[in-house]
Specification:
The protein is of the alpha/beta class. The protein contains seven helices and ten strands. The chain has one domain: Rossmann fold (3-Layer(aba) Sandwich). Bound molecules: adenosine-5'-triphosphate. The site of adenosine-5'-triphosphate has 11 residues, from strand 2 and helix 1.
């Protein structure tokens, strides 16, 4: 018997209006499904729509047509507030640009999403800080951290609420080779430990090879 799917996208279409008039179709019937704990790389040429697809999977944007279902609940059909709630409690997000909160120290950044989700667990946050090599920096400001440290913190923040789904957009895109390898290994280890499924948008063959499955986006469709 197949395991119940965590995430299902069915026949997603998305077209953007162009500033000068006209429109640009970006996703043209994209479907995928992800089992709990599965890891998936989304690859494709620059501009092929990978980030757009990730945003639809995260409920950050809505498709023009098609559905995104998370744990059996229709994410894409929910009104904005309910989608934001689902994102807070069920999805961890990691971006290329780290997106840390500059006015909060490392400890508060780490705990931020878990607090929002009403699932702060001080012991788990301490474990995450330790595992991510950030324990000595807990009272530092994010701007004083290296790029690698900032991305490790962003991963910890995304996993602090133990979401069943982690979505990452070029998580190693701003890092040198050594930091990229460390961040990739930690992201995979901690996702596996928490049971989170992972979808990673990437241009990196190394990152793509580290995922259990790869899908390539081309001409608005996945293969
Ligand atoms: N909000 C938006 N409004 C208008 N056009 C958009 C918007 N978001 C994305 N696009 C366009 O959709 C296309 C796909 O963009 P997207 O960022 O999803 O591609 P990508 O595959 O992630 O690219 P890259 O690898 O360069 O990050 C691009 O042509 C982009 O200009």
């Amino acid at each position: 018997m197949f395991p119940a799917m965590l995430l299902t996208a069915k026949d997603l279409h998305k077209t953007f209006a162009l500033p000068g008039g006209g429109s640009q179709p970006v996703l043209n019937g994209v479907s995928l499904s992800l089992a709990p704990g599965e890891t998936l790389a989304l690859t494709g040429e620059s501009g092929s729509g990978k980030s757009t697809l990730l945003h639809l999977l995260a409920g950050l944007e809505r498709p023009d047509s098609g559905t995104v279902t998370l744990d059996g609940a229709p994410l894409s059909a929910l009104p904005d507030a309910a989608r934001a709630e689902a994102r807070r409690t069920r999805i961890g997000l990691v971006f290329q640009q780290f997106n840390l909160i500059p006015s909060l120290d490392v400890a508060a950044n780490l705990a931020f999403q878990a607090r929002l989700a009403g699932r702060h667990d001080a012991r788990w946050c301490a474990t995450l800080a330790e595992r991510l090599g950030l324990a000595p920096q807990l009272s530092a400001w994010p701007e004083t951290l290296s790029g690698g440290q900032q991305q490790r913190l962003a991963i910890g923040r995304a996993l602090a609420a133990r979401p069943p789904l982690l979505l990452a957009d070029e998580p190693t895109g701003n890092l040198d080779e050594d930091n990229a390898a460390t961040v990739l290994a930690l992201m995979l280890e901690l996702a596996a430990e928490t049971g989170a499924a992972l979808v990673t948008v990437t241009h990196s063959a190394t990152v793509a090879a580290a995922m259990s499955r790869r899908l390539h986006l081309s001409h608005g469709r996945l293969a």
